[in-house]
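At your convenience, could you comment on the folded chain following this short note?
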Amino acid sequence: MDDKLAMLRAVPLFVGLDDGELEAVGGLCDEVDMPAGRELITEGTFGNEFFLILSGDVRISRNGATLRVLGPGDFLGEIALVDHGRRSATATCATDCRLLVLGHREFHSLLDAQPDIRVHVLEALARRVRQLAPDQDL
């Protein structure tokens, strides 16, 4: 689990978590194997899961055009953990993949049970918003 926790620690949403908090998040994750060709996320649908790629490659596409290919250590769907919003792209396993999967409902149960984690996640989201729109904080 140490390697998986190290990979989770690199996710911007989880950067401020201490070891115990990160272990709590990791404990909610399911490790799953997905075959090449399996669609993980469909553009335009509502998101419920976060995925961390342990092995394999995932193709990200929008309107059928490939945007990029993600590999081990990369992640997708972290914003869906927070807002349960529509997916902006489709993600398909380009190869057989091993993934850590964290569901929206489980994540929110953890945030309710551990308010310190909620604070860290909100701070991480605020940092991300500032990076995306630095001139908006007037």
About this structure: Helices lie at 2-9, 19-28, 78-83, 104-113, 115-132.
